[in-house]
Design goal:
It is built from 29 helices and 20 strands. With 871 residues, the chain is an alpha/beta fold. It folds into 4 domains: 3-90 and 122-147 and 197-275, Alpha-Beta Complex (Maf protein); 285-385, Winged helix-like DNA-binding domain superfamily/Winged helix DNA-binding domain (Arc Repressor Mutant, subunit A, Orthogonal Bundle); 409-614, Rossmann fold (3-Layer(aba) Sandwich); 627-870, Mitochondrial carrier domain (Mitochondrial carrier fold). Strands 1, 2, 3, 4, 5, 6, 7 and 8 form an 8-stranded mixed beta sheet that branches. Strands 13-12-11-14-17-15-16-20 form an 8-stranded mixed beta sheet, sandwiched between helices. Helix 24 (682-715) packs across helix 26 (750-773). The longest helix is centred in the last third of the chain and has 34 residues, at 682-715. Pfam families: Dimerisation, Maf, Methyltransf_2, Mito_carr. Belongs to the mitochondrial carrier (TC 2.A.29) family.
Length: 871
């Protein structure tokens, strides 16, 4: 079928799919085709009776769907695409064409007609090639159809209405979708299954192969030609570069009857667009995305400035005309803006009306509780304007910072100061809870928030900590205006506003918890640092751009320091250079980016000793893709010895675990299996084996669980050196967790672990003993047979119990954490959130490596039996 060469040929062309069907989009995307989606506005109102056959109707409808976008681009004075693909799927039974049902009764009539019968599914496909000749925009149309025969089972009334009430039939030709619930109605399919889904991919690829690679057969579908559309741009035709196509045929030689003219059989007959051939490198999509990405930001900021989200928050859905009237804009301009917002996921469109998404109502409406409207205005104003002068800043060699400067709003007008404060206030309200609960600040009775602005964080702090008094320290101009801003909490007597400058020592900082929240208006991944001189600090993924120098000279032992910053997570490579995701923080901060190691050295130079970098989990972009990826990356990123991180705890726990298991197993077997005949009481014997194995495992777990906990935490404690890790070793881990959370912290996840160990040990011992007991001569069974049974039992037991192990490890990772680092309220909440946020597959991450590791357990099981024979 020459699929890959055909798809490569289209990679350098602008391909448009004139269909909003998600099923067609998925089929073509899976085939590797890159395309834009421009739904056709053609109204499917062709008179069915005027067509000789159902397939003729489907082909004509597909052709009209494909031609309409070309006219649309022309009318909008836009560059036309190179290729437009249109498709239409219909169901035909007894010569009657069935399209999409208009209501439930119509769906019932359709499905009743199909019940117990064969019917045909036709998909007409039209491929339109656009080119320019002699100042006119020509379109060449290649069209075909595919037929698939489908047989329905005899359907009961109950089944029919159950399916109709599901809502699935309403947007499907014939009233059913074979790829979803409708598949239960189908008895058999003869032909292309994807044709029934909505697009005949197999036939489509064959037709493209004929167009681009080989002369067409005389009986192949005919390509027809339209040349009535005036040109809007210069286009070159398509050709068979690999097959050596013929010279371009002259344009406008006149139309034959019906407005079409036949073309000679053969391949398309011009070079690829702009002369690009398959030997050229692929289009740099990421580079183009970076160049073009500012448009999406500008659309969002403009919609905020025009109060689009305010208009739609309480009154939506509204038409484009309604919105245009409210924001004082043209209908056409408003419609374009709204459609782009829909494409960006900011708005929803249904039935011609536009409405806010939940995120837009929560964060983009100006009166929302967690509104970022002020931040959008600040970015759209001074920040956007400053970026337009970036070239001048580069030439002058000055560190670029947006005006007005966030650190010095007194240099600007009152309005400029208010604009910055609105941005800061919105972002502070959004992050205040995370910052306030990131660490346990209850030991402190006073705090000073440096550059506290409107006091949003201060009010959240006094809510969380009833004993805490907070002083907001900022510039006089800011303090004067802070009273105009509302917070989620009522005014508190424990929040005080004090004006000053960077040269003024903040009040009471020597004895209090000093707080610094600096914002750089980048994707939210807040960083925290807490500590006190002479004590232990935990450094989050990053640090703010400019710690207050006054802290290093004023903070005395016993005080604390918490710094938080909005900025992307960054890590250090082997050479110490920070690697950042795409962003412009370096321009906004006027400095080179710093990694955690650089911040650690900075704090140590200020008198903070034993600073440690901690992360509650591996960042999303650093997670392992599988076993092989993990094995390859660990030596590179953390060193070969990291494979044995936590192994001491594993070795120490292994022998008592096995000894206790085997010791308790025999005791419990006497309890549960005493007097049970395995030949005459099989199920009681089986249940007794399950109970004794599970009880033995659960009992041993009570003694060795802290070691299992330490092994898990040490294995997850990534880093190349001790200074980058949370724990120095087994003893340090046990001591720190005990100091932080008490003995209870060492048993985090114990309940779910007991559940999992009962299931695992039940299968591990119970099924194994039962299977061995069913052998003709269990005592003289060959060791290889015993090992095969044990290996199977171990693998099955490991997979069945693995979800409990996943939840256990997640709960273990929460010990020693505080506030926002606590992801799960309990075991049930952990199960629920993993399933909701990550899907069922997340419970089995690493299950395959666990099965491989279980081979040793199978050997131990067999060896135990062999030793019993000797002893």
């Amino acid at each position: 079928m020459l699929l890959c060469p055909v798809i490569r040929k289209l990679q350098h062309k602008r391909v448009v799919l004139a269909s909003s069907s998600p099923r067609r989009q998925e089929i073509l995307s899976n085939a590797g085709l890159r395309f834009e989606v421009v739904p056709s506005r053609f109204k499917e109102k062709l008179h069915k009776a005027s067509f000789a056959s159902p397939q003729a109707y489907a082909v004509e409808t597909a052709k009209q769907k494909a031609l309409e976008p070309s006219l649309y681009f022309l009318q909008k004075d836009l560059r036309a695409p190179d290729v437009v693909i249109g498709a239409d799927t219909i169901v035909a039974v007894g010569g009657l064409i069935l399209e999409k049902p208009v209501d439930k009764q119509d769906a019932y009539r359709m499905l009743s007609r199909l019940s117990g019968k064969e019917h045909s599914v036709f998909t007409g496909v039209a491929v339109v090639h656009c080119c320019t000749k002699d100042g006119q925009l020509d379109t060449q149309v290649s069209e075909f159809y595919e037929e698939t025969t489908v047989k329905f089972s005899a359907l009961s009334e109950e089944l029919l209405w159950e399916y109709i009430d599901s809502g699935e039939p309403m947007d499907k030709a014939g009233g059913y979708g074979i790829q979803a619930l409708g598949g239960m109605l189908v008895e058999y399919v003869h032909g292309d299954f994807l044709n029934v889904v909505g697009f005949p991919l197999n036939r489509f690829c064959k037709e493209l192969a004929c167009l681009y690679h080989a002369p067409r057969d005389p009986g192949a579908p005919q390509r027809i030609h339209y040349d009535s559309i005036p040109a809007v741009d210069t286009f070159e035709d398509l050709s068979n570069v690999e097959g050596g196509g013929s010279d371009p045929a002259p344009a406008n030689r006149g139309l034959e009857a019906g407005g079409v003219r036949p073309r000679a059989p053969g391949t398309l007959d011009a070079p690829d667009l702009n002369g690009v051939r398959d030997s050229q490198p692929p289009i740099p999509a990421r580079l183009l995305g970076l160049m073009d990405g500012f448009k999406a930001s500008k659309v969002l900021l403009t919609a905020c400035r025009l109060n689009v989200f305010d208009v739609l928050k309480d009154r939506g859905p509204l038409t484009a005309a309604d919105v245009a009237r409210e924001i004082d804009a043209s209908v056409d301009g408003a419609e374009r803006l709204l459609d782009v917002c829909v494409a960006l996921g900011l708005l929803e469109k249904a039935g011609g009306g536009y409405s806010n998404t939940e995120t837009a109502s929560r964060h983009l409406a100006s009166d929302a509780e967690l509104s970022l409207h002020g931040l959008a205005a600040y970015l759209d104003g001074p920040v956007w304007g400053a970026f337009t002068h970036l070239g001048r800043a580069v030439r002058e060699g000055a560190a670029w910072t947006p005006e007005p400067l966030p650190q010095a709003p007194h240099k600007q007008s009152t309005e400029a100061t208010l604009q910055f404060m609105r941005a800061s206030h919105g972002l502070s309200k959004l992050t205040a809870h995370h910052v306030a609960t990131a660490f346990d600040l209850s030991p402190f009775t006073s705090a000073c928030h440096l550059q506290g602005c409107t006091g949003a964080l201060a009010h959240k702090l006094v809510q969380e900590y009833p004993r805490l008094q907070v002083t907001v320290f900022d510039l006089p101009e800011v303090i004067e205006l802070a009273g105009d801003f509302q917070t989620d909490a009522r005014p508190s007597e424990r929040v005080h506003f004090v004006p000053g400058t960077e040269q003024t020592a903040p009040p009471g900082i020597a004895e209090s918890a000093a707080l610094s929240l600096q914002t750089e208006f980048l994707p939210p991944s807040h960083r925290e640092v807490r500590g006190s001189p002479g004590g232990t600090r935990r450094l989050g993924p990053g640090m703010p751009a400019r710690p207050f120098p006054v802290i290093s000279v004023s903070v005395s032992p016993g005080a604390g320091l918490l710094l938080a910053e909005l900025a992307p997570v960054e890590e250090e490579d082997a050479g110490g250079a920070a690697r950042r995701p795409p962003g412009l923080q370096i321009l906004g901060a006027g400095r080179a980016p710093r990694g955690p190691g650089q911040y650690r050295r900075l704090l140590q130079g200020l008198g903070f000793r034993d600073v440690q970098h901690a992360s509650k989990q591996i960042a999303a972009d650093k997670q392992y893709k599988g076993i092989v990826d993990c094995i390859v990356r660990i030596p590179k990123e953390q060193g070969v010895l990291s494979f044995w991180r936590g192994n001491l705890a594993n070795v120490i726990r292994y022998f008592p675990t096995q000894a206790l298991n085997f010791a308790f197993k025999d005791k419990y077997k006497q309890i549960f299996l005493g007097g049970v005949d395995k030949h005459t009481q099989f199920w009681r014997y089986f249940a007794g084996n399950l109970a004794s194995g599970g009880a033995a495992g659960a009992t041993s777990l009570c003694f060795v669980y802290p070691l299992d906990f330490a092994r898990t935490r040490l294995a997850a404690d990534v880093g190349k050196s001790g200074s980058e890790r949370e724990f120095k070793g087994l003893g340090d881990c046990l001591v720190k967790i005990t100091k932080s959370d008490g003995i209870r912290g060492l048993y985090q996840g114990f309940n779910v672990s007991v559940q999992g160990i009962i299931i695992y040990r039940a299968a591990y011992f119970g099924i194994y003993d039962t299977a061995k007991g069913m052998l003709p001569d269990p005592k003289n069974t060959h060791i290889v047979v015993s090992w095969m049974i044990a290996q199977t039992v171990t693998a099955v037991a490991g997979v069945v119990s693995y979800p409990f192990d996943t939840v256990r490890r997640r709960m273990m990772m929460q010990s020693g954490r505080k506030g926002a680092d606590i992801m799960y309220k309990g075991t049930v909440d952990c199960w629920r959130k993993i399933l909701k946020d990550e899907g069922g597959k997340a419970f089995f991450k690493g299950a395959w490596s666990n099965v491989l590791r279980g081979m040793g357990g199978a050997f131990v099981l067999v060896l135990y039996d062999e030793l019993k024979k000797v002893i």
